[in-house]
Specification:
It contains twelve helices and ten strands. The strands form three sheets. A four-stranded mixed β-sheet has the order 1-4-5-8. It has a four-stranded antiparallel β-sheet with strand order 2-3-7-6, with no helix packed on it. A two-stranded antiparallel ribbon has the order 9-10.
Length: 390
């Protein structure tokens, strides 16, 4: 592949930057950081509406489904720029679930769900993880039993982020109890307002909310099973690969690294400018090299998708690099800035806007969101390197 952007891609980057300069300010970036990228504060909602009005909601969707038909590389540029600016990312409904429905849904399902996703009427929570299964999706227990023309869903999901905002759940359920573990799962859409659905909050270390969701004999139409029955494990893997294209973006890490560098440029400690301290300069330079390398991995993943593939190993590599690099930026940032770098943004003594302590608390979640990094290394081993699974 060619790592140099084409003239069209460079022009697209400049167009996105122009939009950002007109619509993103410090207040939006602060709100996004306080509520999380998937939160929905008033400023974030206004920003997302502006994206929608511009036609950028489904910018990488095919034109036949109401999108702009942008390439995966153009989508990667877009995500990279908005996250680098500290703005909210596109919802996974648009970037993960919708592309999966385009590939596996029948024509009626595409005509039913995609326009409503495009209009913002539908927003999904992603129902994969369970308390007893962890990241081992094949061991999930939530089941769906066919009763006439309806599925009856029973079970529970953990870490179901956005479930308290979502209109629907993109749910992995066991429909074939006698089949092998990987073959007995299907993907199903469950409305969050259906009788029998209940949501409980789970507050995690960065101060963000995720959820436990319970399904008590919830009935959904038979047509809400998407794709082929029993193929849900592979469909979920496909959706997660699309999801990692977003999680693997280096934009957010670059945003926080830039704040750290800005602080180092001006801060004086014990009478000596931080920018003149050799070990500080060496560590910042090393982080910058790693950020550039991570950006190349993200670009490679988008390029592979543009070639018509589902880049499983590539997206796993990008996701590992970005999530672990975020941890290193937080670790190095807290050490470089000292105790004041570990203060919350609300404290007037905080350095770099309190970003380092926030990233320090957030980055462990990045390592298991979208599939743990241990699982990603397994994927790289058997899908990227052709090694045996065991």
């Amino acid at each position: 592949m060619d790592y140099e952007l084409s003239p069209r891609e460079r022009a697209w980057r400049e167009e996105v930057r122009g939009f950002i300069s007109a619509h993103v300010d410090d207040a939006l970036a602060d709100e996004t950081r306080a509520r999380g990228n998937e939160g929905r504060g008033p400023l974030a909602l206004a920003f997302l509406e502006a994206l929608k009005a511009r036609g950028w909601w489904g910018l990488a969707w095919p034109q036949e489904y109401g999108g702009l038909g942008k390439s995966a590389i153009e989508q990667w540029i877009f995500i990279d720029e908005i996250e680098s600016a500290g703005a909210p990312m596109l919802p996974l409904t648009v970037t993960s679930v919708a592309p999966t429905i385009m590939r596996i849904g029948n024509e009626d399902q595409k005509q039913d769900w995609l326009p409503r996703i495009q209009d913002g009427e539908i927003e999904f929570a992603l129902g994969y993880s369970e308390a007893e299964a962890g990241t081992d999706l094949a061991s999930l227990r939530t089941q769906a039993v066919l009763d006439g023309d309806e599925w009856v869903v029973s079970g529970a999901k953990m870490w179901n982020t956005m479930a308290h905002h979502a209109t629907h759940n993109w749910l992995a359920v066991r429909t074939e109890p006698d089949a092998r573990k990987h073959k007995g799962i299907s993907m199903m859409i469950v409305p969050m307002d259906a009788p029998g659905v209940s949501v409980q909050p789970i507050w995690v270390w960065p101060g963000l909310r995720t959820n436990a969701v319970f399904f008590d004999d919830v009935r959904v139409p038979r047509s809400y099973l998407i794709g082929e029955r029993g193929m849900g494990f592979y469909y979920a893997a496909m959706a997660l690969n699309f999801e990692r294209l977003s999680i693997g973006s280096i934009g957010m890490a670059r945003c926080h690294f830039r704040a750290l560098v800005d602080e180092v440029r001006t801060r004086v400690v014990d009478g000596r400018p931080l920018r003149e301290v050799p070990w500080v300069r060496e560590r910042l330079a090393r982080l910058q090299v790693e950020i550039d390398a991570a950006g190349m991995l993200g670009l490679q993943t988008a390029w592979a998708q543009d070639q018509g593939g589902v880049p499983a190993a590539e997206s796993s590599m990008a996701k590992i690099q970005v999530s672990e690099l975020s941890q290193r930026i937080a670790d190095e940032g807290c050490e470089i800035l000292g105790l004041n770098g570990q203060l919350h943004a609300d404290d007037e003594r905080a350095l770099a806007g309190g970003r380092m302590q926030w990233l320090y608390r957030l980055s462990p979640m990045l390592a298991f969101g979208g599939g743990t990094n241990e699982v990603q290394r397994d994927i790289i081993g058997f899908m990227g390197l052709g090694l045996p699974r065991k």
